[in-house]
Amino acid sequence: MKKGHQVTMKEIAKKLGVSVSTVSRALKDSPELHPDTKKRIVEMATSMNYQYNLLAQSLRISRSKVLGVIVPELTSHFFSSNISGIQDTAYKRGYNIMICQSNESFEQEKANLKTLVSSQVDGLLISLSRETKSYEHLQELYDREIPFIMFDRVTEEIPVSKVTVDDAHGAYLAVNHLLQQGCRKIAYFSGPTDLYISKKRKEGYLEALQEFGIPETESRVYVTDLTEEMNRKVTMEMLAEGDRPDAIFAMIDPLAIDVMIVLKENGIKIPQDIALAGFTNNPTSAVVEPSLTTISQPGYEMGQLAANHLLDQLDEIVPDDPQSFILLTTLVERNSSQKSTTA
Amino acid sequence: MKKGHQVTMKEIAKKLGVSVSTVSRALKDSPELHPDTKKRIVEMATSMNYQYNLLAQSLRISRSKVLGVIVPELTSHFFSSNISGIQDTAYKRGYNIMICQSNESFEQEKANLKTLVSSQVDGLLISLSRETKSYEHLQELYDREIPFIMFDRVTEEIPVSKVTVDDAHGAYLAVNHLLQQGCRKIAYFSGPTDLYISKKRKEGYLEALQEFGIPETESRVYVTDLTEEMNRKVTMEMLAEGDRPDAIFAMIDPLAIDVMIVLKENGIKIPQDIALAGFTNNPTSAVVEPSLTTISQPGYEMGQLAANHLLDQLDEIVPDDPQSFILLTTLVERNSSQKSTTA
DNA sequence: CTGTTAGCGCCTTCAA
DNA sequence: TTGAAGGCGCTAACAG
């Protein structure tokens, strides 16, 4: 299918017997122009259905007014909330966004970066894939002075602005809550250990335990690659052990829900036998049975903040030295952890 | 923040004392070029960290290799699945995507259309907002011969290709299933009546009833604007009536779940007192209690199909007369409707 | 095999 | 108040 012809300033100019520059000036409402000429041109443009060509402008001014976004996956509620915040913010400030998903693949992430840079995006918002363990591609981006910031899945290795939630504190809130409920043998179900959030949330987990005088014990840490299969396997392993925990803090809600399913299958009562808490506050968590206690992350706000900050940097409203924004998480108490009321 | 300087072919040419066209040819591996020259140029480009400027190419060839996507909202699982399918497909075929969300607003949808057209997207994939009841903006797009197709939320008014699921048949499957379970007084909970899917799903509902010799009765149709508030209100109204239904078919899962919550609050047993079925198969539906019987829509596949078809049209692999793709839905039987086994 | 020229659509001097 | 010229980065047609 061939795209229909788009009217250009040149054509308007020819029809009216004026120069292209005059048309250009009229269309951007320049004051140094005879009102009549302006009127004639604007009317002609409207009647010819003229549509401004942003591409040409971008080339001209070396600014595309496009932001690139790379996320691990589009279908997760958290990331789509981020994107929603980014999109709304960018739109309000006159920018479009181009989106890529790395599908949690390092190679894909590098490829995405390349096409977005090629497309001359003015800046990038990046959330790293699970596989990303080396950062040369980001370093190169940095060296080439292409503005970008990271959100949620970040690395400390590159000195750019970052937007995250307070993972450690969120985990602390969750585990502290479990402790308040009387649990003392609390397991931590972790994602891959090299993931930033796995580490941070473990910090909070350990801090809460320490505060209650419980010796740090790695023996209650279970690691999964977050596939349903392995989540199930790890949970079964835990159940097979002699000294079962009385509570589980799972690094993210989907993991918590996988754990919940396995526990229920095995006749374990939640929260009576084992209390459970997650992290993220996915919509699903509110409706599972029992409803899942979790930590709420402000996904939409993160997206807004990240986009606003990047645009502030681009527009030099704000100096471009790296800042770290840490958003607050909140505890959402639900039934999966209410020992006191349900026991 | 100023974007770092990007190396251009011109600079490479100057460094090497050749012409820009030679550089251009070398970089696209043209055969009519001395291997040595080519080698020198490619090496120089690499060492200077040259990055191709897609924007300039777009302007030159009048093709941006960008697809525009407009969806009502980004955070719904169904639409993010669509987008995921679109993105993966576009990427594979060398296209980027620009995404806008209309936030269910007609004005926003028109504005989105405008900026995407301005950005010179090669084609558009559109899913209409709930508010969209007039179609001049699409007609204009059509008249201007900008290739686009619609998916999921479509209108028959514009002769372009459409990708939808078989809504009527899906509804038929759900209601037929409820009938098989022995229910005879089946209510239909509908969204706004001017919505395409509201109508189509009602058709399937009525067809199933008819097949069982149940007189069409509008009295069991309940209409909501799909806000939680009104969903609740309508459900309460239904409960207040004398002749309660023994089953409910809700137009979409979130509505079904709102209904489920209200029923449970009122001590109604599901499915024993009232069976329940939804439509969409959101991830949430699998984990609610009782798990929700629903109709599965292939969101990712819809996105893939839509993107592939549009690109086929653009690349003239396929003639550009409008086609209608109707994807199959499947019944997902879960506990909210299993009268036979649970009664 | 390589260089020159022209132009994609737009805007910004500079000149008139 | 308006026009002409030049250029953003790249490519394609035409020379040589």
TrEMBL record, chains A, B:
GO terms for molecular function: DNA-binding transcription factor activity; transcription cis-regulatory region binding. This is Transcriptional regulator of the myo-inositol catabolic operon. The lineage of its organism: Bacteria, Pseudomonadati, Bacteroidota, Cytophagia, Cytophagales. PANTHER family: HTH-TYPE TRANSCRIPTIONAL REGULATOR GALS (PTHR30146:SF109), LACI-RELATED TRANSCRIPTIONAL REPRESSOR (PTHR30146). InterPro entries: HTH_LacI, Lambda_DNA-bd_dom_sf, Peripla_BP/Lac1_sug-bd_dom, Peripla_BP_I. Keywords: DNA-binding, Transcription, Transcription regulation. SUPFAM superfamilies: lambda repressor-like DNA-binding domains, Periplasmic binding protein-like I. It comes from Indibacter alkaliphilus (strain CCUG 57479 / KCTC 22604 / LW1). Residues 7-61 form the HTH lacI-type domain. Pfam families: LacI, Peripla_BP_1.
